[in-house]
């Protein structure tokens, strides 16, 4: 049984596309996509030997070696031009790590039409990368599993640079439209945590670094509270 989180990632994969799943671990997502008839060709990439072997084992057990190619390499280096990958999924890592994979794999992104990214933390770094590299956000989703809250960002290439407000960058342009209960819970949790950090900072020596960090947190708290207090 695939986790709720990965089931929702799978939901954004267009039918019949060729997928590269980077950091695939047990290759649960590629197996699910093929077994459910969503796609019939997936490259499962892993950089660490243990998870790479788990992926191979899982794919063999499911009898899917003809459809899922498990490869050992870092990030988008697993993608070869002849693969004609149109969808890339990267799930279960921090936003900054996902961004570094995208930055290092810039060449392999040529021809890719859709990125489905599920950062565990710091989705903002992905939005920063998207704006700087002309990718637009077409869908966003927020979900909760085992008390953890996850975001999914679906990106497609855009012609013109998109401009988002600081609130859209931090909280997600699509997620802000809906402001679901889970979204409100996430940002209430985050701002409560920032407030605790600010209080701690106030009780220590006010060095230049501390004052700057505190100011940064206060600005983020204000951005978030403005959204949470707004009627819609
Ligand atoms: N994608 C799966 C999921 O969402 O459940 C597995 C997530 S697991 C926490 C992260 C995986 O990414 C690990 O197996 C790790 O080895 C792999 N990983 C980390 N950096 C990577 C990179 N640069 N290239 C490929 N895989 C990477």
From TrEMBL:
Coiled-coil features, chain-numbered ranges: none
Organism domain of life: Bacteria
An MF annotation (GO) of this entry: methyltransferase activity
Keyword match Translocase: no
Record's keyword terms, sorted: Methyltransferase, Transferase
One of the GO biological process terms: methylation
Name of this protein: SAM-dependent methyltransferase
């Amino acid at each position: 049984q695939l986790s709720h989180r990965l089931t929702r990632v799978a939901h954004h994969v267009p039918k019949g596309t060729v997928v590269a799943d980077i950091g695939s671990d047990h290759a649960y997502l590629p197996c699910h996509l093929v077994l459910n008839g969503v796609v019939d060709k997936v490259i499962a990439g892993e950089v660490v030997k243990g998870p790479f072997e788990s992926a191979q084992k899982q794919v063999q057990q499911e009898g899917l070696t003809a459809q899922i190619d498990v490869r050992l390499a870092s990030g988008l280096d697993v993608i070869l031009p002849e693969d004609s990958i149109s969808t890339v999924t990267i799930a279960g890592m921090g936003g900054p790590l996902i961004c570094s994979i995208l930055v290092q794999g810039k060449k392999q992104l040529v021809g890719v039409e859709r990125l489905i990214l599920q950062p565990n933390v710091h989705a903002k770094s992905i939005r920063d990368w998207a704006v700087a590299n002309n990718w637009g956000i077409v869908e966003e989703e927020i979900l909760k599993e085992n008390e953890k809250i996850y975001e999914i960002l679906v990106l497609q290439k855009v012609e013109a640079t998109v401009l988002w407000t600081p609130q859209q960058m931090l909280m997600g342009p699509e997620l802000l439209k809906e402001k679901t209960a889970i979204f409100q819970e996430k940002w209430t949790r985050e701002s409560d945590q920032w407030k605790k950090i600010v209080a701690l900072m106030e009780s220590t020596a006010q060095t230049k670094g501390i004052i700057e960090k505190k100011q940064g947190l206060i600005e983020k708290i204000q951005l978030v509270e403005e959204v949470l207090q707004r009627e819609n």
